[in-house]
Amino acid sequence: MQKSMKKYMVIFALPTIIAFAIAFFIPFIMGIYLSFTKFTTVTNAQWVGLENYRKAFSNADFVNAFLFTGKFTIVSVITINLFAFALALLLTRGIRGTNLFRTVFFMPNLIGGIVLGYIWQLIINGVLANFGVDITYDAKYGFWGLVILMNWQLIGYMMIIYIAGIQNIPGELIEAAKIDGARPKQILGKITIPLVMPSITICSFLTLTNSFKLYDQNLALTAGKPGRSTSMLALDISNTFYNRNGWEGVGQAKAVLFFLMVAVIALIQLVITRRKEVEH
Amino acid sequence: MPKIHKVILTCFLTLLSLLFLFPIVIVFLNSFKGKFFISSAPFSFPTKETFVGLINYTQGLEKTGLNQAFAWSLFITISSVTVIVLLTSMTAWYLTRVKSKFTSAMYYLFVFSMIVPFQMVMFTMTKIADMLNLSNPIGIILIYLGFGSGLSVFTFGGFIKSVPIAVEEAAMIDGCNPIQTFFRVVFPILKPTSITVAILNTMWIWNDYLLPSLVLGTDFQTIPIAIQSLKGGHGSIDMGVMMAMLVLAILPIIIFYLLCQNYIIKGVAAGAVKG
After folding, report:
1. Residue B274 pLDDT
2. How far is the C-alpha of A133 from the C-alpha of A93, rounded, in Å?
3. From the CA of B163, how many Å to the nearest CA of chain A?
4. How far, in Å, CA of B227 to CA of A218, rounded?
5. Which of A24, A203, A214 has the highest number of chain B CBs within 10 A, making it the mutation to test binding with B?
6. Domain that holds residue A220
7. Residue A134 within a domain
8. Is the Cα torsion angle B254, B255, B256, B258 positive or negative in sign?
9. Which residues of chain A have a CB within 8 Å of the CB of B109?
10. Which residues of B are less than 8 Å from A96 in CB distance?
11. What is the pLDDT of residues B33-51, one digit of tens each?
């Protein structure tokens, strides 16, 4: 079968590979090269070594964006997963209307980040107006605004994954525990949570990378204001590329650093997952 | 569970659902108010004084050309997703069934691309797209295929590995060439995965803002770009128009969601388990 298939490479794999090369692979390699150069239009690149990286690290906006993104990611990963897991537990108890509730909780996820940002800008500004301020008055308003927005958007998505995980637990296991006199708390801690560990891993990975790479919501909700204090990494990189002449190389160096951070997070996650799989 | 607990739980979940729907309801109510009343009283029903009928909608459609944007969003999403499902399933099948250094290297490259954030290739990809004349609604389909191929090849590949090869071999022995084998035997088997891949890509491409804004500029606006352009440069936003356009942007998604919610929820769960 392999032999007869091999000739068909041109039809089966080549179109995707060409598109992949144009949209991802060549830009990726070029991006790494350009991060070591000074350029404005890609064709006039001049080698500057690690200069761009030095500038990126000594750039206060970048450092601030990194800290802001880190704090935001930690808070959102914890809150989203706690709420999503709690909802999943409630929705796997066989009460009526479960489907309707699931539908409602998942809905915000389908709305795009830009639209989500403006929806929450209205709500949060509406609340803050009572105190005579708005969301761009202080960085902490923007921070919590983003946390609330992300929770609203992602709780439903993660809930679906947790529900799938909980429903995979064999019913006899819980029955047996009940007969042995286990209290609900013990069932949760000793059976449910250990058995949905794979879902917990997937959900924390998804919330982690989604929070870390957040762009649209950040742009629409605060656009980084006041000043640049609520700019997250993705927004800061875009601003460096497109709003600051002569800094394209630094923008690209920031992007490489951003990629490395995301890659490290993904790798750590992978290692943890593997370790869990060995235990089972 | 005792009956009384069930009642309490149902009440609690109902309240929570209403809270979840609250932001959308507020946007809807405000879309009928005059622009000066939206920031002063966002949480009240429109009154005689604040109610302006459909004027925000008519003005907004004139200003933003949202119906045009809707058409572009629809065209780009449907054609990109169709191309992605068709071509990446073929690629995944080829890469899984033909064992060579090249195919396994390609497969790992596709998987690798999944962890690379868009910012890494943002600038260079835009330049290449410009050079190759891809900065138009047709060209962007190719870019979406390239950038979306990682997740899709990975998802299809995972499923194909679990499908026994015997059926395909039988088809080939019976005289099918690989193209016939794929379209008559393999592609129908892949249907559930195709739905998952289509849903994940639709959610991404329909809502994507940054990529089309960089590649298409302002010549061919999609819905997220049209909404963002309302904010404009330095002028203040017309909040009435903004609310009306937000409602129009959300409406098609909610209708689409209610029509195929079961597919979407199953697709998301399946996609997560594989990813």
Report:
1. 54
2. 43
3. 15
4. 15
5. A24
6. 56-275
7. yes
8. positive
9. 20, 25
10. 10
11. 998 888 778 888 888 888 9
Instruction: Report pLDDT for A280.
Output: 46
Residue A59 CA neighbour count, 13 Å, CB half: 23
pLDDT above 80 (res A120): yes
Question: Among partner residues A106, A110, A258, which is closest to B120 by beta-carbon distance?
Answer: A258
In a domain, A46, yes or no: no
Q: What is the ipTM of this complex?
A: 0.93
Q: Report the pLDDT value the prediction gives residue B235, as an integer from 0 to 100.
A: 59
Amino acid letter, B194: S
- Is residue A209 in some structural domain? yes
- Residues of chain B positioned with their CB less than 8 A from the CB of A157: 268
Question: Is B29:B46 a contact under the CB 8 Å cutoff?
Answer: yes
Domain count, chain A: 1
Which CATH number characterizes residue A123's domain?
A: 1.10.3720.10
C-alpha distances (whole Å) from A162 to each of A78, A84, A104, A200, B9 are 15, 7, 16, 7, 19
Nearest to B123 among A110, A119, A251 (CB): A251
* Pick from A13, A129, A5, A154: nearest CA to A73: A154
φ, ψ for residue A59, nearest 5 deg: -90, 115
Question: For residue A280, what are its two tokens?
Answer: 């089972």
| The predicted structure's pLDDT at residue B273 | 66
Chain A contact for B200 (CB, 8 A cutoff): no
Residue A46: strand, helix, or coil:
strand
Above 80 in pLDDT, residue A277? Answer: no
Q: What distance in Å separates residue B126's CA from the closest CA in chain A?
A: 9
Looking at the domain assignment, is residue A33 inside a domain? Answer: no
